Amino acid sequence: MSTSNTITFILFIATTLLASSNAADNATTQPLFPAILIFGDSTVDTGNNNYPINTFFRATHLPYGIDLPNHEANGRFSNGKLIPDILAAKYNIKQLVPPFLQPNLSDQDIVTGVCFASAGAGYDDLTSLSTQAIPVSEQPNMFKSYIARLKSIVGDKKAMEIINNALVVISAGTNDFILNYYTIPTRRLQYHHVSSYQDFILKRLDNLIGELYSLGCRNIVIGGLPPIGCLPIQMTAKFRNIFRFCLEQENKDSVVYNQKLQKQIPQMQASLTGSKILYADIYNPIYDMMQNPGKYGIDTTFLVSQHMISLFC
């Protein structure tokens, strides 16, 4: 799903969460984090929407999953692994991160972490109302159920130790713009300028971080927005854009949002004692890939855009 630059960057981000370099030296034998916990949208949903959710955002057909071992779609909006899977494997946690709604989760699945993300979700509940996905604001409720089961397996003290030291990945926000603010007039009537809506979304994210912190999460990586104006769904939806050029204003909106997020993160961390909150740059690696496809062994940028970014739902 991701370019090598994106993977390298996010792996670097996660590594900097470690307290000592000695832990990195032991990466080949010991997990660098006891568990991985995932919140967000289709960029990180490993299959929750395959289970009883009344949504049409489902990755249940090829080419989704075509490069996985069984060559079958399993709910991931990717031809293969998603970033959570890559991180989990890189840090010797597990090879694939299962969705929390998967009915046959083993105790080991629970102990090493799961995914709560839902394709089509957003920080804004109105976004999920239109997609029928699990809103990001409701994903902590699943997390609470997870904590209860984790405690039943390893006990209260060990459970909190796992959560305190787990790697938490959050990736959402794109749907709030492409499926909501840019498309549905409701929020534009409330927030006349996109800047005001960005601030609203960032406040929702701030609330999420606070709730996850209260539940024990300490090591958190937050993904920024991609170049929204280069998503196929956006280029195609604009009838004037018959040559599929990127929509520069929407890309500028993404840049401004990401700048605000980067400025907000140190404030979040300062207010949450013991937390390590870091920003993962999604925009620049993807934009560079689209502008310089040859660097990545890509011949056709548009086709890569289809495969790499999908609908970003």
TrEMBL record:
PANTHER family the record matches: GDSL ESTERASE/LIPASE EXL3, SGNH HYDROLASE-TYPE ESTERASE DOMAIN-CONTAINING PROTEIN
Name of the protein described by the UniProt record: BnaA04g18220D protein
Species per Swiss-Prot/TrEMBL record: Brassica napus
Keywords: Signal
Family: Belongs to the 'GDSL' lipolytic enzyme family.
Gene3D superfamilies membership: SGNH hydrolase
Molecular function GO labels: hydrolase activity, acting on ester bonds
Protein origin, superkingdom: Eukaryota
Signal peptide segment: 1-23
InterPro entries linked to this entry: GDSL, GDSL_lipolytic_enzyme, SGNH_hydro_sf, SGNH_plant_lipase-like
